[in-house]
Amino acid sequence: MASSLSYSPVAFVGASASDLLRSSSNGISGIPLRTLGRARLGARRRDFAVVAKIRKGKKHEYPWPDNADPDVKGGILSHLSHFKPLKDKPKPVTLEFERPLVDLEKKIIDVRKMANETGLDFSDQIISLENKYQQALKDLYTHLTPIQRVNIARHPNRPTFLDHVFSITEKFVELHGDRGGYDDPAIVTGVGTIDGRRYMFMGHQKGRNTKENIQRNFGMPTPHGYRKALRMMYYADHHGFPIVTFIDTPGAFADLKSEELGQGEAIAHNLRTMFGLKVPIVSIVIGEGGSGGALAIGCANKLLMLENAVFYVASPEACAAILWKTAKAAPKAAERLKITASELCKLQIADGIIPEPLGGAHADPSWTSKQIKKAINESMDELMKMDTPELLKHRMLKFRKIGGFQEGLPVDPKKKVNMKKKEEPIRKTSDLNIEDEVKKLMQQRLDAKESSVMPPQSDLDEMINKLKREVDREFFEAVKTIGLKDRFVMLRGEFSKLNSEDHLVHPALKDKVEKLRDELNQGLPAAPNYESLKHKLDMLKELSKTKSLAEKNYKASTLKQEINKKFAEVLDRPDVQEKYRALKAEIENSGASMVQDLDHGLREKIVKVKKDIELELADALKSLDLDVEVVNSKVKKLSEQQTSFSDVKVKMQELNEEIKEGIENVIKSSDLKDKIELLKLEVAKAGKTPNTVSKNRIAALEQQIKQSLAAALDSSNLKEKHEKLKAEISKTIESSEGLDGSLEKQYAKEDDSTYAEPRVEIGVNRTFA
């Protein structure tokens, strides 16, 4: 834009300084009109141009589209909202504990890609991996630790307040401003309908990307946001709209400007006002609820929480920094603070848990929104039945009962279950004291052994229990110092649950245990108390060995007494004594002095009587739950055979160890391991009554596993060793002589040698030879 004005410069004669500075509505600023009039009469003229350029301003972006769709979900007024679908899909964010799931998902994608490229059928492998993924997903999200739930609640891709509101409402119109000149985007308010019923919605709004987070101040409201929420509370109370608040904030914004504008006063005003509102209020924690910033819109008749939401007075990091002087103790602080939905329901701070699908922020948010809608309807149906005084009293009592107690009254058993158990003080015993006590006890047992008077077993049991407690304490201290305590406690709880329910251990849980065991083996030597732990463990093993030996000796002595008693009862029986006396009389009447001089009939009679007595003795031993085998042989020959059999036994044990090691190495191969896992899944899927297809699959997998094992063992030299040992065993058996009932073989006398007496070996529930 440009304009020009022509004038002739003249001397402004007769004009005072005040005239020159005075403005006129009909002239140029600072120049009187009469002066301009005189100037036009001048003799000389020059052109003078005044040019003004207007800078282009930024066009205001209005949310209303050019072609508004009147049938849009939420009504045509929803076009006024600045909350639009994102043009770019948010980048996936994987939490640290979710990495194993991502690896499994990547394997499934790779196998499917390979199947598409090669045209081969990998359906069994895909099914196996998918089942493994689902089981791992279930195991992970049903055993989340408090700090893991905190990370899920803070996930950048977690659905926000407006995501849920637009999903559960038929119509929603956002209302802005605190009527003080400000509109805080960190708190969003508006009127919406669910199943035809109007509600006033308000909640913390986080951003879905960096740009929105900066705009929304990362969900941390200023005093203007709380005053906007307060205005909408009054509006809802005036029109009778029930209020639904959504909580998702790390806390109120704590900068200097917010404090100057009255952050604390704004929160306190909201708290006081919410207790006096005459309409039902339901608050839902959809993410993290931090301190007073969450409570400023959370004083409701009912407080509901999503399954993976958290509600705290101080963040775990802040609590850890205060109590333990480091933010790295945040997992421990999260556990102690009791901030999860389940813990808060036990403490009766939260009134209900809204379930979430497995997968956290990676799951479908629409399912969660449906559960939120269902919870709102159920809660409001209950609250709408109350009249105004009852509603206000209900809200007041909800907060009055939190943390209340009275001394001297018995504790309600239901509350007592949720109370923290009293921790017994750990009495740390000096290593030198324990070592002295162990040495003293061992010396007492040695002295008692020499005097044939054994000390009481209770002293040994007490010392073993004491050492066990010390070893457990040292072990937990070591596990704690290497940072594996939480995982160890979690796995121990899972195993206890499986043992109580008699369930099979899942392969995924076995993998966790093996991984933790490897980490423990690698990390324990680095623990400061490793030497003390090892020393106490060695002492415990020594005492346990002593106890086992003492018990074995005691059992053997008792059993020997019982056997002697049974033998005496059999031999003292009248019928046995009669047989013995009759046979002795016949031998004396025959006049023979050696076995060879006896006639054949008498020798056979002796053998028969001997066998009858052996059977009687065997029955007596069987009554003591003993298995018996009678062995007759020459002492010299028996000693030779024992040496031979012991050598063979050692070789058999060595071969068994090699075979076992070979099978374990084969099983560790990925191919065979996958087949075994697939077989387990097929058996579990088939159940007790498998169909023909399942039977065929199971049989085929078993055959493949057997063939793989056989092929791996054939390729080694184990088969050759087995054949060699087999031949050696056959040779040893052939060289040994068995019983044929001949009296000559049993009592044949050699030069100056005595008769070899029959020997009976016995054992508890075992066969002895």
Question: What does this entry look like structurally?
Answer:
InterPro entries: Acetyl_CoA_COase_a_su, ClpP/crotonase-like_dom_sf, COA_CT_C. With 769 residues, the protein is α/β, with parallel strands linked by helices. The chain contains 29 helices and 12 strands. Strands 3, 4, 5, 6, 7, 8, 9 and 10 form an 8-stranded mixed beta sheet that branches. Residues 1-30, 39-43, 631-636 and 737-769 have low confidence and may be disordered.
Keywords:
single chain; about 775 residues; alpha/beta; 8-stranded mixed β-sheet; 29 helices; elongated; disordered C terminus
In a nutshell, what does this entry contain?
This protein is α/β, with parallel strands linked by helices.
Fold topology:
Elements: E1 2-7, H1 17-21, H2 33-39, E2 46-51, H3 99-118, H4 123-141, H5 146-153, H6 161-168, E3 171-175, E4 187-194, E5 197-204, H7 210-215, H8 223-239, E6 243-249, H9 256-260, H10 263-274, E7 281-290, H11 291-295, E8 302-306, E9 310-312, H12 316-323, H13 330-337, H14 341-346, E10 352-354, H15 365-383, H16 388-400, H17 413-418, H18 431-450, H19 457-481, H20 485-501, H21 507-523, H22 530-571, H23 574-590, H24 600-622, E11 626-631, H25 635-668, H26 670-686, H27 692-715, H28 718-735, H29 743-747, E12 759-764
Parallel strand pairs: 5-6, 6-7, 7-8, 7-9, 8-10
Antiparallel strand pairs: 1-2, 3-4, 4-5, 11-12
Helix pairs in contact: 3-4, 5-13, 6-15, 8-10, 12-13, 18-19, 18-22, 19-22, 22-24, 23-24, 25-27, 25-28, 26-27
